[in-house]
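Box S2. Input/output pair 1.
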Amino acid sequence: MASIPASKLVAIVPAAGVGTRLRPQTHTVPKALVNVAGKPILGHILDALLEQGIERIVVVVGYMGERIQEFLRESYRMPIEVVHQSERLGLGHAIGVTAPVVPTGPILIVLGDTIVEPDWSAYLGGSEAVIGVKEVDDPRRFGVVEVRGETVLRLIEKPAEPPSNLAIVGLYYFPEAAMLHAKLHELMTAGRRTKGEFQLTDALQAMLESGVRMRISAVEGWFDCGKPETLLQTNQHMLRRVPQPAPIPGVTLVAPVFVAPTARIEKSILGPDVSVADGAVIRRSIIRNAIINEGALVEDMLLERSVVGESAIVRGSFQRLNVGDSSEVDLSGGLQV
């Protein structure tokens, strides 16, 4: 496979989604900035792209786009371009609005709400388009590809009767952007929507029908951040890759744990699988399998399988019990704030 320098690629990262399944977190924070293992989802994605030597990145923003722009300015020295999607009309539309700034040349598309760990070499060059896929138990929830060997025959968005169990993970390489933009333009000009939106999969299917060759590349590491339970699973995975914090006097840390430098922890037990963001304060609490976001306050709590939002205040009290013989007390269950 012929390769090109990664510096010649343009990475497009659609990050305009609302994230309704992550509410109440996304009432005040765009989905791409939800914290996982010490940094926003978008931060993990951009850092991975920069590690591959990609020098030009275009982020598509919409909902709370000013928050994302602020994050980009504060977190990255290199300029990252921003394109606004004024209407939420689907992923195809989000890619389409980048046509004026990336009209031609090789492009890499990485969705801004999932974290992937692929064999990057499969997506950094070549004469054929590449679509990242992963085998899933219920492909009806995803865009799906039908293949012969590694060659893509057909793409369908959330099919009732899937032709395969290969879900599209939101990672794409195209050796030439012009054809993709042309098909997206045709789609939107004709008003052709699927499930109420302009779908990228429909444009890709049109490209296939025009004779464009596409192949698949398996992605083993695909971490969904779309729901609280999958967000916590992704947090668990990513925590195993971050350095563990130094001991904190009066605090027990059960690895893996991330504690931001400006967080304050007092008389507590954290872990395993806990991420604490900057400015958070935790006192007299026992927390495991949880994400505590920026500026949150947690006092006198037992938390598990929990996501505490930015600047939220969660206070409780340890219980004093006198429990008789053969009794059962169940105080289990996760909390989302």
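Box S3. Input/output pair 2.
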Amino acid sequence: MSVVGIDIISKRGERRKYLPLEIRAKMYEDVIELRKQGLKPSQIQEKLFEKYKEQISIQNIYNWINGKHYPFGSINKFDEKPSPELAYIIGVIFSDGYKYFNDKNNDYSLRLDVKDKEFAEEFGEKLARVLRRKKPYKPFWNTYKKLWTVVGYCIQLYDFLNKPLKELKSYIEYNKDCVSSFLQALFNGEGTIPKHTRMLRLCNTNKELLNYVRYLLKKYFDIDTTGPHLARKKRNIMCFPNGKIAKTNKDYYYIYIRAKSLLNFYKYIGFTIKRKQQRLIEAIQW
């Protein structure tokens, strides 16, 4: 993702382009808000100069107000409208996904590194829909990590996902489909059913998140759980799917779904990962 400039007028009247995306985005929001307050483009120009010490051309302001241009250029645009796809992305980021900022290239990315290709493909499709791309983000095999990797870029979505859990709950609980999608993403990432058991577990270091998951499971799908239980204390040794071994720096907790509720989980949530879905079916039939 390259940094696109904006039409800036220097003190000498020369035009130059260099402002980074995050400043452009803030300026655009100010222009729209000031226009709603009834200010003229010339007045908006003065206000922006007072705040940012940069003189934007009147033409730029007109174009932003009239919707002819946006400050994001070819960069992906993100609409905060609640949807199952957005809820799924939130769930991925709370499990195996992560946000990454590359200060050298000014890149704001959303990433997922996993061993199950189906999970990576699902995330790529959901991410593309939220960012209004025609084609899904395709996973590629990361030879260094020995995992399937998906990467998408969007500063707005990056910032949105920096919100604390309490501010994201209205998007997660917008409707029942959103709740199901959020939970499916979490369980795709960190849900397990050990062989020869009927115990569906969800593990995470975030105790608040696990308590919230228990609440959602019971309220929307009548699924009974127990926990959170302490699974591993911080500074213990942990083995990762790619073969790496490291010490944990946080306590690790889990909740598990009672056997009598496995059928409801299958009906209303389930897995998109084939091997996990098969283990779920086996646990229900056991």
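Caption for Box S3: Residues 34 and 43 are 9 Å apart (CA to CA). The chain has a mean pLDDT of 85.
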